[in-house]
Amino acid sequence: MIATLFRFVAIAVASAVLTVGPSVNAEDGHKLWLRYAPLDTAARAALASRVTAITAAADTSPTLAAARAELDRGFAGMLGAPLPHDTALHDHGLVIGTPASLPALAALHLPLGRLGHDGYLIRSIRMNGKDETIVAANTDIGVLYGVFALLERIERQQPLADLDIVSAPRIDLRILDHWDNLDGSVERGYAGRSLWDWWTLPDYKDPLYTDYARADASIGINGAVLNNVNASPDILRPRYLAKVAALADVFRPYGIKVYLSVNFASPMVLGDLKTADPLDPAVAAWWKRKADTIYRAIPDFGGFLVKANSEGQPGPQDYHRSHADGANMLAAALAPHGGVVMWRAFVYGAADKDRAKQAFDEFKPLDGAFAANVILQVKNGPIDFQPREPFSPLFGAMHRTPMMLELQITKEYLGQATSLAYLGPLFEEALRADTYARGKGSTVARVIDGSLFGNRLSGIAGVANTGRDRDWAGSTFNQANWFVFGRMAWNPDADAGAVAREWSELTFGPDRRITTPVVDMMMRSREAVVDYMTPLGLAHQMGTGNHYGPAPWVSDLARPEWNPTYYNRADRTGIGFDRTASGSDAVSQYAPPVAHRFDDLATVPDADLLWFHHVPWDYRLHSGETLWHSLADHYQHGVEEVAAMQREWATLAPLIDAQRFAKTAAFLSIEHREAVWWRDASMAYWLHVSGLPLPAGYPAPAHDLGYYEALSFPNAPGQAK
Ligand code: BDP
Question: Which atom of ligand 1 is nearest to the CA of 406?
Fold first, then answer.
């Protein structure tokens, strides 16, 4: 009786789930894009006609074991049970491995040469009279990447017949930079506490670490800098190195190397030295001993990331030495072990100099002076991760120094966790920017993949948006920014729209009724932020310290270039920063065709106008509209775009699970409120400085300027300590 009742209840619950549909199934986003949701009948049949068993070597490395475990997890989710594994070939088998681990693959003489270390090949093939799907690579990590690619294909219900996929990354170092502090806070983190629980490491290896590694590997990320660039010297103490080694052990099977941010003054803080002068032999010896110690615990340690002489961090200039002196000394300590130094070019603070010019002026003279295992890490724009910046001129200027691009995945300046902004278009814009360093087509992508200047090192870093929130990134849509970073790190020519589609299908299921509106929202979301925050080339108008909300009026901070007024230069006569030849001449740092385009009002893109030019309020844009009118229009358009995203999302209520639907809806209403605030506060200030009347047809700010100026947010998350 009880059993019958139980069965009845079970059937009732199951049919309720089936009939009401996915919206009753709460999802908290923890599975990211690796959901492996049950396939429908047609997709199961399509899979069953191609793959019914797995063939892999019996003795497997931890990486191949991870690949098999992922297949089990994937098929258990999608089919209800894993597929059988063994070493024999089956008809309709999935054969995974390297020629070295699986002799059957060696016999095929596959064209693996072009795959390099990390690439993979997925192919439908007839082998010994049987129809097989193979995932082959030169290395186990290549096999793992291929397995993820195949699983994603199955999840997206893409055809599984006649496969012939060859994929290899263009960039070697594909790294996430975690700005995580040792106390568990995350600088510019909006997704909760740090993933790394330094307190319980190394004894407790939270399963979250493995899931993090899986997520990274699934998008080809192969390095993690574990700690904040504003680095505590403590990370190099033995107690912390043991914790770092424990994380490295967890990450290793997934092909992820650990790196550390180091504080240049560490030998003084930790080593009883009186100096950190890079040319002092005792200092060099200290770093060498430290590197040797690290490599004893972590043989595949990646290397150091260094923020030196920047925003108060110590560095070689404290001893009148150059960045190259500092970087090369650390590089010498790491070189015997194969490690690299990622030396950041994010520097500013020289008196009376346009901040946008400083990195170039400091680093260009050092081109060619860096050791072979140093790579310069350059932010996409010359200032600082703004909603839009022109590309950093360093990318076109350092012909004898490998450079890696630093992007910010966490949205410090783009509305933080609650903004929907999909950063694919921003990353794409940065990567496709043409430096003209070697003529047309000298894109930033080709600089950082090493092909333009023939560099041996190539790299890209993204400042991570991860934390202990259940959905890892603070919102479902923020997960897309982690995802697209990985995709563009693998292929810097990847298309932002195509990646959005892929992500949407993995995240919400391959249902066109969902994908079309979701991709549309994503593709307009970043430009909406530019419009409602900093249109037409404005930048750095955010609140002091927390970088939250509008503050274009701030002009009283200790350093001139911390003030929004420094960037907007708005007064009665006009607005914008004159970086032309007759202004700060920042344009001259670009190759001539680029410099001319930016310098000349006739050719500068509207999107960069106020970055490069100071123009009167009644200046006429190419459209014939006045600047003043256009500014009002951009703010308003940004607000309307967010409203349009809200409407689009609302139509998806019947198709998206309740929990993820509700969170995105709530976050969009926060974004809408903030967009209105940005528009109104900015316009209130421009009205005040320009003395002009509001252009007809635009809403007057809801409050007077004083109201906006008085707002303060001391508890906004993610602030620097
Ligand atoms: C700025 C951030 C600050 C970082 C700095 C950096 O506000 O928290 O430390 O960049 O990249 O944008 O070093």
Answer: 11
Tens-digit pLDDT profile for residues 394-414: 999 999 999 999 999 999 999
* Residue from 232, 263, 405, 412 to probe ligand 1 pocket by mutation (most atoms less than 8 Å from CB): 412
Q: What is the pLDDT of residues 164-175, one digit of tens each?
A: 999 999 999 999
Residues 629 and 612: their CA atoms lie apart, in Å, by: 19
Query: What is the C-alpha to C-alpha distance for residues 90 and 408, in angstroms, rounded to an integer?
Result: 46
Domains assigned to the chain = 2-167 (3.30.379.10), 173-508 (3.20.20.80), 531-577+614-710 (3.90.1330.10)
Do the Cβ atoms of 385 and 392 come closer than 8 Å? no
Closest protein CA for atom 11 of ligand 1:
346
* Alpha-carbon torsion angle 691, 641, 427, 566, nearest 10: 10
For residues 258 and 462, give the distance between their C-alpha atoms in angstroms, rounded to a whole number. Answer: 14
The residue type of 197 is D
Q: pTM for this one?
A: 0.96
Instruction: Check pocket membership of 385 for ligand 1, CB cut-off 6 A.
Output: yes
Buried residues in 583-601 as b, exposed as e (16+ CB within 10 A): bbebbbbbbeebbebbbee
- pLDDT reading at 305 higher than 90: yes
